[in-house]
Amino acid sequence: MIDHHWLDHPFARNRFLISTASQLRELQAMRGAGLFWIPALSQAEPLPDEPAAGSRPAEGPALPAGDDAASLRRAQSVRERLLVAQARRDWNRAAETVRHALRGLRENPEAAAADLVAVATAAAARILEGRDILQLLDRPGAESGQYHALNCMTIATLVAKTMRLSPGELTDVALGALVHDVGKVLIPHRVLREAKRSPAEERVYRDHCQIGLELARGTGVFSESVLNLIRDHHEAVDGSGFPAGRPGAELSQAARILSLVNRYDRLCGPESPDRTSLRPADALRRIWRDERKRIDPDVFSALVNVLGVYPPGSIVQLSDLRIALVIAPSARPTLPVVLIYQPSRTQEQANLLDLSADGDGLAVEKHLLPHELSREALQWLDPRERLVYYFRGAEPD
Predict the structure, then answer these.
(1) Are residues 205 and 241 in the same domain?
(2) Which residue among 50, 168, 238, 256 is least crowded, i.e. fewest CB within 10 A of its CB?
């Protein structure tokens, strides 16, 4: 394993079997920094150390169990970093495609739509074939138009999988979630970012559902079920949504999924800079407390399952009193993957720990509010004003 950014070394992957002499020379040139050998995955035994001239081989005791445990923890931390890096690379590739497609949707609608279909289809296939979980990413250097589209695609597809939708339905959810806001390309930017819209501005804003439906239909690329998702992504099961006030009986399960995921992500990252972003757990509480009549409770349960008890982006205190940022859920809902606050290190150097696999009995003690943290801890943890998610696999590529 190589614990470096994938652009900082000449290999195609961060984890691989050494198969050529040239690979070995390249690794030797890196002088061992950030290189890890995992015996369990190796196909060869290491050569014994050669004793110095005139000396006898040491016959000391085997390494104590504590050293083995420390090595295992280091390997686990490296593995977590590889998973984070993999998710970041996948997100960057998808975001670049989505950015160009959204820009080109008016001028070259068929080609742009085909690119969006390719992104969503690939994501759906990847999620269908393995156990993928939600990954919080650093704030990527990209325009904000991709954030909401990719967040909704990622979370909605994972929710659809949790609810056991068919492969075809899951692919439609992925695509519908990715393109649900295409109508906003024709809505004035000022209206989108207005914190308090006038009645006339609100009518213009709500038109984006119908505009998006017509724009997407004109490409000739999207299925009827995907077009319905574009139309219905602001509807509610109690009939209080827009544009048509359709009740839950008239909404597909996919539409109920997208409506909730869209609302959750908007609470965590509102369009208007004058509105306050909610922390993930607070967004879920707001929806359940104030908007329960508008949502499908089964979809809400599936969303909580995907996000975990401590959603990515949450700041928590562990049972040993250390502070951490939740990076991803894990196999156990109450034991997420966390980034440990270590003020003497940068975030890139700090320990990533999967509490479910290598927590040594550690647990999350409680959520922390920003005002409960020191200014230094708050700056180091950098709780995101705009959360960026993608999915990650159970094994690094």
Answers:
(1) yes
(2) 50
